[in-house]
Design goal:
The structure holds two protein chains of two kinds. Chain A is mostly helical. Chain A is built from one helix and no strands. The chains are: A mainly alpha, B alpha/beta.
């Protein structure tokens, strides 16, 4: 049986760091998603007809 | 040995996520910078209107060609500065007659356009090289036969080029899916297209000033194309090939994000499979022929593009396959282990690592959703609950097709190398 536990000494702290970093970045990007959605929905809904959008 | 493979696969997936986050961040910055409304009713005059020859390569396109010709001739660009050449290339239908019929419509009667019936070789690249010889325009514009450019598409493309005509050899716009409501496949393709156009293209342009010429909806400086020897005759993806050539000359391919055109996407799995396999295969060939630039004095943009393509098509794909195989093998062995306790899994991570990897997987999945839904949120009419549900489903279905297509393309290349058989005919996407 091959066990990765022997690699746990470096794999675990690295995985933990990467996971936390991903989590933080993704929370930040989620906020951006919400801001973009809020702004575009407002823009699109307040126009009488669609001309052109960036 | 197997442990090493597993770790390499996991680290590789992390790297692919870092690439996604970098591109997504660039895309988000671009979206925030360009959220303001464009008043298309009062567009400023351009400093000059260079003559543009729009070329439409068409191979048996009688179903769609008239709409395309009319859409191009209706664009907001001075009539005397626009030349349109439609190539009815090796057609067996009435494509050419349909184009000639447009000349009988009074409002197009005096416009500068013609159809050329061609019987040469080289496919689309061959057509574009022929056009290069006879085009009167300073710039060559290309639209596929199924394209429906918006009224101001050409205006925005030219406007972008004129920002820096010395540096910008070409400008490309955005393509949108015309038939996305057709079925599950077209819905998923639409998600991919919106994501590519609104995150990938904008992200790469925002961060690195890297652009790639698409197959349609772009203009390119005629003299510069001539100086690099034209299009690569017979290339499966002539657009990728010429993008590398232009970057090799130190030129940029600028993103004109307001220049939009609608196009038709495959509606059947068979048509989709053939189109994407051709793209994947064409991209492999271009990457392999440009691999040498990683080690010579080429610009950093070319090196970055080669690394990006290498990672996407070769490295990441292989890692995902290895990771999936190990995952499946583990499940099988674990099941067998219930009946036969002496059988154990191939890889055992231990509790803490297992939990961390599950969290990683959830984050990856969420990043996928985030990327698509940020793209959807920035596009008119796309941020719907329906599209959100499709983005959820597409991860487990449509997104996995990429692996199948990539493997099939590799297989085709190997087969053709062995048999010495390679064709450069028209590879046409079925119209509906």
């Amino acid at each position: 049986m091959m066990i990765l536990m022997s690699m746990g000494s470096w794999l675990l702290p690295i995985s933990l760091t990467v996971t936390i970093a991903f989590g933080i970045v993704i929370i930040g990007l989620s906020v951006c998603w919400w801001l973009i959605l809020k702004r575009t929905v407002k823009t699109f809904n307040t126009e009488r007809k669609r001309d052109h959008h960036d | 040995m197997i442990n090493d493979f597993y770790v390499i696969a996991i680290v590789t997936i992390w790297l692919s996520i870092v690439m996604t986050i970098v591109t997504l961040t660039g895309g988000v910055i671009f979206i925030f910078k360009h959220l303001k409304h464009t008043d298309v009713a009062n567009l400023p005059k351009l400093s000059r209107y260079p003559k543009v020859t729009v070329v439409v390569p068409a191979h048996n396109e009688e179903i769609v060609i008239q709409d395309t010709v009319q859409a191009i001739l209706s664009m907001n660009y001075p009539d005397d500065r626009l030349e349109l050449i439609v190539y009815a290339d090796n057609c067996e239908d009435s494509t050419a007659d349909r184009v000639r019929a447009v000349a009988k419509i009074p409002r197009f009667a005096n416009r500068n356009f013609r159809v050329i019936e061609r019987t040469g070789t080289g496919g689309k690249a061959g057509v574009l090289n022929d056009a290069l010889k006879i085009a009167k325009g300073e710039y060559l514009g290309v639209y596929d036969a199924d394209a429906a450019p918006e009224e101001n598409a050409l205006y925005f493309l030219v406007q972008k080029i004129l920002e820096n005509p010395e540096r910008y050899a070409a400008a490309f716009g955005r393509n949108k899916t015309r038939n996305y409501q057709q079925n599950f496949l077209t819905r998923c393709i639409n998600l991919e297209i919106v994501n590519t156009q609104r995150i990938q293209h904008t992200g790469l342009w925002q961060l690195f000033k890297i652009g790639r010429i698409p197959g349609t909806n772009f203009i390119i400086n005629k003299e510069i194309v001539k100086s690099i020897g034209g299009w690569n005759n017979g290339a499966l993806t002539e657009d990728t090939a010429i993008s590398f050539s232009l970057m090799g000359k130190g030129k940029l391919i600028a993103l004109a994000h307001r220049a939009e055109a609608f196009q038709q996407e495959p509606e059947t799995l068979f048509a989709y499979y053939n189109q994407r396999k051709r793209w994947a295969r064409g991209n492999y060939e271009v990457i392999l022929s440009n691999l040498k630039h990683l080690f010579d004095g080429s610009s950093w943009r070319i090196k970055l593009e080669v690394v990006y393509y290498m990672c996407t098509f070769f490295w990441f794909n292989t890692a995902i396959i290895i990771s999936n195989l190990l995952f499946l093998l583990n499940i099988v062995l674990e099941t067998v282990g219930i009946a036969f306790p002496q059988v154990h899994e191939v890889v055992q991570l231990g509790n803490t690592l297992s939990v961390l990897f599950v969290i990683n997987w959830i984050l990856m999945f969420y990043l996928y959703l985030l990327q698509i839904n940020i793209a959807l949120a920035s596009d008119y009419g796309q941020a719907t609950i329906k599209n959100f549900l499709y983005s959820l489903l597409s991860y487990f279905t449509y997104a996995q097709l990429f692996i199948v297509v990539s493997l099939a393309a590799v297989w085709d290349i190997i087969r053709d190398k062995v048999t010495g058989n390679r064709r450069a005919n028209w590879y046409k996407t079925q119209r509906f």
